[in-house]
Amino acid sequence: EKHVMAGSPVELKCYIKNCLKQPTYVFWYMSGSRLLDSGGRVKVRTSMLTTGVTALSVLSIDKVDQSDRGNYTCKPASGGEASISLHVLEGEKPAGLHHDQTSDGNQFTTHLGLKAILVLSAHNYFLKEIYKGF
Questions:
Q1: Nearest CA to 119 among 100, 104, 109?
Q2: What is the pLDDT of residue 39?
Q3: What is the pTM of this model?
């Protein structure tokens, strides 16, 4: 669960670990509805990190507003999912938004926009790729 000020940018990062290649797709959902990269306020980009065993999918939203609040979920082709609940605040920043916070392996940075790191493990991705040839 994360809070961000209205009007600020948001970046949600979904790390898919233990994958041999970039997932065919990573779908992002907001409160159950699939988000599409409109080329406008909402953008999605997915790539492999230089380590070669982790993919990164980033959902970016420019200038969040109340309509952006909800539960965000990333779902890669390899299966699994990771979610975070986003709350959009109006008015003065609560003290908690001035500090970086780390909780349960998820790192959040909120002072220049929100960065949420959602980590997935794609162990079953190996099996799907290995057994395709059989």
A1: 104
A2: 78
A3: 0.71
